[in-house]
Amino acid sequence: MTTLVQNVVDGLGRGSTYALLALGISLIFGVMHLVNFAHAELITVGAYLAYGLSTLGLGWWYLVPAIIASAVLASMAVEITAFRWVRNSSPFTLLLTSFAIERLSHALWQVLVSPKKQTFAGPGWAFDTWELGGIRVEVMDVITIVVTIVVLAITALVFTRTLFGLAVRASAEDFDAARLMGVRANRVISGAFGFAGLLAGIAAALIVMRSPTAEPTLGSDWLIKAVVAAIIGGLGSFSGAVVGGLSLGLAEVFFRSYLPDGTAQRLTDAVVFMLIAALFIVRPAGLFTVKTAERV
Amino acid sequence: MTDPTWLRLGRSLGASAVMVVVLFAGSTLYTATGGSARELLVKELLINLMLVLGLQIFIGNTGILSFGHLAFAQIAAYTVALLTIPVAVKQQQLPDIPFGLGTMHLGAFPATLVAIGMALLVGGLIGIAVVRAGGIAATMITLAVLFVVDQLVKNWQELTKGAGGLSSVPPLGGTLGLWVGGIVGLVVAHWFAETRPGRFAVATREDEIAAPSLGIGLFGSRYVAWIVSIGLVGLAGALRVQAIGSTSPKQYTLDVTVLLLAMLVVGGMRTPTGAVVGTILITVGNEVFRQLGDPKRLDIDRFPDLFLGVTLLAAMLWRPSGLLGDIDLGAWLRRRTRRPHQPVVRINPIRTASLTASSIGVTFGGFTALRDAHVRVGPGEVVGIIGPNGAGKTTLFNVVTGLVSPVNGTVRLGEQELTNAAPEEVARAGLARTFQNLRLFGNLTVLENVTLTALVSAKYRPDEAPIDVAWLLQVSGLAGFEDRTASTLDYGNQRRLELARAAALSPEFLLLDEPTSGMSDDESIEMVERIRTMGAAVGAGVLVIDHDLAFITMISDHIVALGEGTVIAEGTPKDIRRDPHVMAAYLGSEARDDAAAAGDE
């Protein structure tokens, strides 16, 4: 029983970070049909900024807002300098553009800082544990889950109650129709990138607080999981992205804990990816299908 | 229409030979001036060439992005390694190896064949899912496959010795094996472009809706492309491990995949020439930038990464079709070896079957698009469907051509039941259509657009007398435009090309969706003549949609008027012009009142 609860807490902790990233990916896919493989580079941006500021002796109260702000700005800057120019191209071109940016980001950190991993001091209390009824939870796990819940609640409000949210959802459904109704493409897409950056920035802050390191390939490890989570949920479906992220996190933790030791355990990721491949074969559009009919 | 096999093979070999000579001259010059260490780069170039050509065959021809091809190259590489490493070494390195592989040993050649077979076996199964899914879902399946194989190789240590990889594979001497592989890759890629599956795959890349509507199914040709490309990357993997003498999962990661994709798209993914040029550019550029790095600082990758990122981004922003676009040595040879001939006029006899759609009902969600709609076209007859926007004209067309399934009703061509048939079956049965908003194969030439449907006709309608493509272009007023890229034609010519492309199927009926939309009055009148001539020449009846009453009454023998999803009137053009319902639908409710009053009198 305690292992079960422990696993649920761990899984939700991992899964909520995936969810924040997946939501951003899904959001961007919704407005411009781009699977953004550069999205997790925002984590790297945040991590390097945090590293830079921490060498100046600034505390975490400054670092966290800085990480989030840098991710928002970087996300919008990339949209303006790169994605805007290929907006109407094929999904193929869009995808490879995002790969180019991902590669450039790796290279820039290698050239500007160093290819090596940079470690700095994390907040001392992150790994303190609280004991609740026989279950030990880390402070960081609780923070991650609580922050994610709050952020997702706010996101839901933004999407259902604000004009911006409505415009984004309308654009995700049918961009041309949305434009005819007076939605401004540049603003919506820019805003979507900004919002996706905000979510990624929050995820980055949570990740860096837990593991205060910066290295060029930091984002890559998160990227694939986030993309997969977004796809499980059905690209363009916002609730799908959250469900996808949480279930991926839970699946990972549970497989690791219940698969027999040895080879099988080492194959956790392989099993997870196999299940995902199987999911696509059964339901190519993901669990939460967003209908996009092509007019003939 | 189709050149004889010797000519097509000759062109494939010729184009490949030119490239091999250039590559060989370049690399001989390079190694001769700098010692044997430089052979490494030549090896890398040849390996990349095979892999990129493999990617070109699938990605370039079908337009489906795959991240998974390296997984099959890796499978082939490990198969070769496990079969060729000497038994004594194997027992020492892999004491717990399963499947009795510990005592198995093969020579280089049989091991290579078994390896390609393994890649094809696994790839063939996965390919069914990939090709069926299509689009972004296909891309994601291949991504998952890449990771599954990567994780299996890294973690199934009894079999693979884990992330460190396997060594002690008996090496092939020199670069001969790789040259053979490179030549095979070039010939296969060029040959594939000359085959019917290759050309059909290109049609599916150009338009996923138009291709089936002209009889080209999405699955068949794409699956052939997949199998051929997997075979080639399998060969590449098998040769690579033997050329280097070792293999490790580091050679088959997503990063390497992106590098190879960059080679493919920077040169131009649609043609073998583009793939070759891109491979040379990026492989050489990568090496140049690697030399800039400082090997002592562990950072020899940073400059190549920078180079790759900048090159790929620049290509995507400025030349998403690649440096060469559609420039291709093979295509150039095809144009040069085309034998001009006098267009052959052939007038087909009028056929005997009628096209009938009866009591068709269609709903989209809660919206009823069609209710009890019907239309019948007799042999050689021209029937017009008219109605205001939203009347259900195109929906009725889509039902007849298999793009939309009706909730009730039947579609028949003569005795043949076509209700719920797939679009390609409908087309092969003899219904050829055009589209309201033009769906040409935009990157292909005018000639290739029309020839593709003629190929469909030859394969799936073998009893039909083939229609001469040159004549068809002449009748369409497109003579002299044969080698123009379809998307560069002006609007009127694009419309005419779409009509010619449909007629090349030698169909029983031509289905034309607003063939004059966007045309001037003069052009419309000219189109009336053209449609009538062309229909008569191929012996086909015509079903045509338009909302232009003048055009429809001019062209049709019989007219069906749709309004809000049902037939509101039908009859001769004269009847329709006088029908009160039609006038109401066209001129508004006041007209209806007046017409009703007139009708009462």
Question: Which descriptors would you attach to this protein?
Answer:
heterodimer, A: mainly alpha, two-stranded antiparallel sheet, globular, B: 601 residues, alpha/beta, 58% helix, 10% strand, elongated, disordered C terminus
SS element count, helices of chain A: 12
* Strand percent estimate of chain A: under 5%
Oligomer: heterodimer
Structural class of chain A: mainly alpha
Proportion in helices of chain B: 55-70%
What's the end-to-end separation of chain A, in Å? 56 Å
Ranges of chain B with pLDDT <50 over ≥5 residues?
595-601
Strand fraction of chain B equals: 5-15%
- Which consecutive residue ranges of chain A, at least 5 long each, have pLDDT under 50? 290-294
Q: Which two chains touch over the largest interface?
A: A-B, 48 and 52 residues
Mean pLDDT over the residues of chain A: 85
Quick take:
With 296 residues, chain A is mainly α.
Descriptive account of the structure:
- The complex is a heterodimer of chains A (296) and B (601).
- The longest helix of chain A has 31 residues, at 2-32.
- In chain A, helix 1 runs antiparallel to helix 10 (238-258) and helix 6 crosses helix 8 (185-210).
- Chain A has twelve helices and four strands; from the N terminus they run H-H-H-H-E-E-E-H-H-H-H-E-H-H-H-H.
- In chain A, the strands form two sheets. Chain A has a two-stranded antiparallel ribbon. A two-stranded antiparallel ribbon of chain A has the order 2-3.
- In chain A, a hairpin with a 2-residue loop joins strand 2 (129-132) and strand 3 (135-138).
- Chain A has 296 residues and is mostly helical.
- Helix content of chain A is 71%, strand content 4%.
- The radius of gyration of chain A is 19 Å and the shape is globular.
- Mean pLDDT of chain A is 85; it is low at 290-294.
- Chain A starts with a helix and ends in a 14-residue tail after the last helix.
- Chain B is α/β, with parallel strands linked by helices.
- In chain B, 58% of the residues lie in helices and 10% in strands.
- In chain B, the strands form two sheets. In chain B, strands 6-7-8-3-9-10 form a six-stranded mixed β-sheet, sandwiched between helices. In chain B, strands 2-1-4-5 form a four-stranded antiparallel β-sheet, covered by helices on one side.
- In chain B, strand 7 (509-513), helix 21 and strand 8 (541-546) form a beta-alpha-beta unit.
- In chain B, helix 1 (5-32) packs antiparallel against helix 8 (176-194) and helix 12 (254-267) crosses helix 13.
- Classes of the chains: A mainly alpha (296), B alpha/beta (601).
- At the A-B interface, helix 4, helix 9 and helix 12 of A face helix 5, helix 6, helix 12 and helix 14 of B.
